[in-house]
Write a structure and sequence with these properties.
Blueprint: H1 2-5, H2 8-49, E1 51-63, E2 69-72, E3 77-85, H3 86-95, E4 99-103, E5 110-119, E6 126-130, E7 133-151, E8 161-163, E9 167-168, E10 172-178, H4 179-182, E11 187-191, E12 202-211, E13 221-223, E14 226-231, E15 233-235, E16 238-248, E17 254-261, E18 264-269, H5 271-275, E19 280-285, E20 291-298, E21 306-310, E22 313-322
Parallel strand pairs: 1-4, 7-11, 16-19
Antiparallel strand pairs: 1-3, 2-7, 3-6, 4-5, 5-7, 7-10, 8-15, 9-14, 10-13, 11-12, 12-14, 16-18, 17-22, 18-21, 20-22
Organism: Fructilactobacillus fructivorans
Pfam family, one: YbbR
Transmembrane segments: 9-27
């Protein structure tokens, strides 16, 4: 037996056993790796094949001869639903490297219903445009020159103040739009924006607008779109007079120290009417006063021909002390 283990036959058989063992070990490893690679490849394929949908808001473009025609009635944006492979839809939604358009190139003046189209989408992506059709009104493009007049709201001018002639650095403007809108224009104005109770000159850039007979704004293109305007505002006939504080219901056992801020005001109105007024009264009831008091008192001349006072109220301070 000892001779067998030391013989060449024993070592040959042992080598053969190791060879078979190594073969089966390597074969099983390849099968496992193949299974893993197959699973990974299957997963990637599934991910690429997965579909998704996404809604986008996309600007609507018009293919039209804009030098000849003006188009009205179309939406600025439309909704587009994209569906297809997830990766392609995501990339397209992020880049938006396609366009939605209405082809008006072969259409003339009038009202039309036009089907919307897309251009630039990958062939694997399906798109659905909402709305699928639009109604447009194509009209001949017209440009007309109109005089520009500066306007303002007189209600915002302070009482008693007068307004000079408004001036503008734009005397006329070119107005472009569809012919039916151009025909509606009654005037083109540079609207001056005034704060309530305006008492001083106004200088600003005013927006130029086209208005119809009812004063409503018409949607057209105006060149230039703004104008530098100057509106002089000043007091009319005026006279500065002192404020006379009258303390009513004083008590005999008390003293009253009075201060008025401001001590004089500007009287505005008819020249003949204000010439006979030498002061303005501020009446204060002190019957319930003690110590230091401050009251805001409205001024009134009682003369209907006086347009206003600037300011129309004063602050009266009354310090009441015992005698």
């Amino acid at each position: 037996m000892k001779k067998f283990f030391q013989s060449k036959w024993f070592y040959a058989i042992l080598s053969l056993i190791f060879t078979f063992a190594l073969f089966f070990y390597v074969h099983d490893g390849k099968n496992d790796m193949g299974l893993t690679n197959s699973t990974s490849s299957s997963t990637n394929t599934t991910q690429m094949a997965a579909n998704k949908s996404k809604d986008l808001s996309v600007p609507l473009q018009l293919n039209v001869n804009s030098d000849k025609y003006f188009v009205i009635g179309y939406p600025e944006k439309v909704n587009v639903q994209l569906s297809g492979p997830s990766a392609l839809v995501t990339t397209t939604a992020n880049t938006q490297n396609f366009k939605v358009y209405a082809d008006l190139g072969n259409l003339g003046p009038g009202e039309h219903t036009v089907k919307l189209q897309q251009q630039g989408l990958n062939s694997d992506i399906h798109s659905k445009i909402k709305p699928s059709k639009i109604h447009v009104n194509i009209q001949p493009r017209r440009t007309v020159k109109f005089p520009v007049k500066a306007t303002y709201d007189k209600k915002n001018i302070a009482s008693g103040y007068k307004v000079g002639k408004a001036s503008s650095d734009v005397s006329s403007a070119k107005v472009t739009g569809p012919i039916d809108q151009i025909n509606r224009i009654d005037s083109v104005v540079a609207k001056i924006s005034l704060k309530p109770n305006t008492k001083s000159d106004v200088k600003q850039d005013a927006v130029i607008e086209a208005l119809d007979k009812k004063g409503k704004t018409i949607n057209v293109i105006i060149t230039p779109s703004t104008s530098a305007v100057d509106l002089p505002v000043s007091a009319g006939d005026n006279k500065r007079v002192p404020v006379k504080v009258n303390l009513n219901n004083k008590q005999d056992d008390k003293t009253y120290d009075v201060k008025c801020d401001p001590s004089d005001v500007l009287l505005l109105g008819d020249k003949d009417a204000i010439s006979g007024i030498n002061s303005v009264n501020a009446d204060v009831d002190v019957s319930k006063m003690s110590g230091k008091n401050t009251k805001t008192v409205s001024l009134d001349t009682g003369n209907s021909k006086v347009n206003g006072l600037d300011p129309s109220t004063v602050k009266v301070q009354v310090d009441v002390k015992d005698k």
